[in-house]
């Protein structure tokens, strides 16, 4: 089996206050994500959210079930979101092949039994970033291009947060059970994402940072609004955000990140804002 999986347990704000840097990274940081011809998965007890990465190079890679799911196949009781952050690739879903280009997405509904990932060119392999959540019903598999995304531009150059939000796998674009995914691109010269910060106690979130230039980093902020912490992130790394935590970042350069959410509410605007001067 070419799959590795880690389990991350849920924690309370009181417990998290006691963590040092190493403990914070061990609990929340996901790295490495892309290993040649392997499936890397992290199973979080926050909303049973799975984060993963697949980079086919020398061969196609099949998404197989793992022991924590107690399922005969991976999507027996789950839905799956995929965004390609590398070279051109394909995803075969029960024999139907979808071409997935750079920054394009694919939604795969519950009940699909065989999902196979391939790269078009081994010299420029695809890097398929995955999010998966439990699902109560099956929705159609569908590829979403950037042209089909629900696009919003927010922020300003003056506040260093001018950015474009591409809502790819959200309920304004296609039906899902609970998974929501999108991609935020910061304009050149801008560093801040998700600022002003917010929390949403009804759902958790995972951020995946990429297009971070060589030698640069992103400082990801987490924790309760009055008890914030930070984790330094490198290119192609992900971080888990508990429902009670803010999720915001500032880079030493502009960058791109993918956000994935799961929980009881599909309303994108369902959030509790935190005023910038009130953060501690």
UniProtKB/TrEMBL annotation:
Requisite cofactors: Zn(2+)
Record-listed Zn(2+) binding positions: 198, 200, 205, 247
Keyword Chloroplast appears in the UniProt entry: no
MF terms (GO), sorted A to Z: 4-deoxy-L-threo-5-hexosulose-uronate ketol-isomerase activity; zinc ion binding
This protein's pathway: Glycan metabolism; pectin degradation; 2-dehydro-3-deoxy-D-gluconate from pectin: step 4/5
Cofactor binding comment, as recorded: Binds 1 zinc ion per subunit.
Keyword annotations of the record: Isomerase, Metal-binding, Zinc
Catalytic reaction annotation: 5-dehydro-4-deoxy-D-glucuronate = 3-deoxy-D-glycero-2,5-hexodiulosonate
Gene Ontology biological process terms, A to Z: D-galacturonate catabolic process; D-glucuronate catabolic process; pectin catabolic process
Isomerase is among the record's keywords: yes
Transmembrane segments: none
Function: Catalyzes the isomerization of 5-dehydro-4-deoxy-D-glucuronate to 3-deoxy-D-glycero-2,5-hexodiulosonate.
The protein's name in its UniProt record: 4-deoxy-L-threo-5-hexosulose-uronate ketol-isomerase
